[in-house]
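Duplicate of earlier report; Carbonic anhydrase input re-posted below.
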Amino acid sequence: MGRPYCPQNGRLMGPQNETQWPNQCRSGGQQSPINIMTRNTVVDTYGAHIRGPLVFRGFGNVNLRATNTGRTLKWMVEEDGPAPVLSGGPLRGNYTFVQFHLHWFSEHAIDGMKYPMEIHLLHVKTGLTVAEALKRPDGLAVIAVLCRVFADDEDNDYSLHELADMVPSLQNRTTAGSELPITLDLYRLMSAQRQAYFTYHGSLTTPDCQEVVTWIVQEQPIIISDSQYKLFRQVDVGGVDNYRSLQPTNRIVYRSAGSSLYNPSPIGMLGALLSITSLLKSTVGSGICFITNLKRKFFTDSSNTCKGE
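Output:
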């Protein structure tokens, strides 16, 4: 999440050479992303940290402009229109929406399980510039939305339908000025259960990895289609994947009182099983490469990436 780091040779810093990332990326003590172990999360029943529900204002029809940054696909809010505002929950004050972008595979993991894709909706504390926000521990707030893949179904209007239509025009990262306008309902990119989430203090997941982010990781993934997922995976972002490796979970992770895990039900358990099944189906074509790459992701294996597709 955040801007890409470009060394002098012009190449983008990908997961394979994170050890070369500068500043807090190596020296920081509260880095992101992390593996959220649900059994270790703290349910904030009495509102000591999560003070009331999250409040979403103006997230309906938002004017955005899309671009391929060379590391991800990003949709920036148009400056001449009203921007959505997020408040409540773990946030102290208002946060203005700036942009959202995509990572594949997911950056965060839940109970050790990665998802095929993750959406980051970036907000800056209202009244601050991005440069100013990067100097404050509470400068940024990011909603992270995990995506699970289901088989294509013509009768299902999947969450990324409108975005997928734009992808062919954003395929090439070397094409200058490929910015495309769109009006989008940002609620479509979020879980229907927006008050069910995990939250912790962490960092940007690209250099300089400043530890200024209040992370709000939605508990329930959204559903995207298999063809959508494959389409995004074909986008040129300087490598096959554009996520950062997991960092130590050396801090408190809170769970909202609206979490379905607080009172697990048979339906919730079924949803978890379906999520695992869908992830396996989406990667079965990669065969042994899926196992090899999982080893590399979770255990920082130094072997070359297996490309079985």
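Helices lie at 24-27, 130-133, 161-164, 226-233, 266-283, 288-299.

Merging into the original ticket.
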